TrEMBL record:
Superkingdom per UniProt: Bacteria
Source species: Heyndrickxia acidicola
Described purpose of this protein according to its UniProt entry: Repressor of the lactose catabolism operon. Galactose-6-phosphate is the inducer.
Keyword Nucleotide-binding tagged: no
GO terms, molecular function: DNA binding
Protein name: Lactose phosphotransferase system repressor
Length: 249
């Protein structure tokens, strides 16, 4: 098998399985371990895979500005947001992070919703001003310009005062074995705190974020109580996420 064909096959297996193991590739492609290591090294240098110990994972989506992400997978994000909004009950203390998917949730709130929403997103805070029975608490801090959210020690300290009933968390990357990761360290710290203080945590995940790994660890995947995607829960791709602690919607 030619090198180009072999590397195309590796990419196909990676996209199908969500992870490839070097030793298994040796057997499947009938080549030496040195050959597979060289293939993985070349694919990584081309930015097509992310190498991990013993194998590789798909690359994470690029970290673009908020205005650009607003126009990516819009219909899929709305499906996720609508399902997420259906979990909210009157009287709850809700925590919304500043993800583009979480921002879509507001349009699915009932007009007579009565609850308190905490958010570190100025955009979301302003969009809630039209709901007469929704009290909004804005978490301040240093503005992270790419995501238009407040982060940093001040924001984390403010969050420690609350115990939300449920947190809706936009996820940058998630993998059943490697956990939830983010491209920005400060946002990773914020998400850690949000998860820590919340009774329930619903991860909002479009499928381009599934089975991916980024630079900074947030937490283990089973820290979620809900995983919400645009896929049907019976989809085989989601089977790895169906643990005893996670409800897939």
């Amino acid at each position: 098998m030619l090198r180009e064909d072999r590397q195309d096959q590796i990419l196909h297996l990676l996209n199908t399985k969500g992870k490839v193991i070097a030793s298994e590739l040796c057997e499947e492609l009938n080549v030496s371990e040195d050959t597979i290591r060289r293939d993985l090294r070349e694919l990584s240098a081309r930015g097509l895979i992310r190498r991990v110990h013993g194998g590789a994972l798909p690359i994470a989506p690029s970290h673009t500005k908020y205005e650009e992400r607003e126009h990516v997978l819009v219909e899929e994000k709305k499906l996720v947001a609508k399902k997420a909004a259906s979990l909210i009950k009157n009287g709850q203390l809700i925590l919304l992070d500043g993800s583009t998917t979480a921002s879509h949730m507001v349009q699915y709130f009932p007009a007579d919703l009565q609850c308190t929403v905490i958010t570190n997103s100025p955009r979301i805070a302003l969009s809630l001003s039209s709901f007469e029975k929704v009290d909004t608490i804005m978490i301040g801090g240093a503005i992270f310009k790419n995501s238009e959210v407040c982060t940093g020690s001040l924001a984390i300290e403010a969050l420690s005062r609350f115990r939300p009933d449920i947190c809706f968390l936009g996820i940058y990357c998630i993998h059943p074995d490697e956990g939830i990761t983010d491209l920005d360290l400060e946002e990773a710290y914020m998400k850690q705190k949000m998860i820590e203080i919340s009774s329930q945590v619903a991860g909002l995940v479009t499928t381009n974020k599934l089975d991916r790994l980024s630079e900074y660890m947030v937490t283990k995947t089973d820290s979620l109580t809900h995983l919400i995607t645009e896929l049907d829960p019976s989809c085989q791709r989601l089977s790895k996420y169906k643990t005893g602690s996670i409800t897939v919607l």
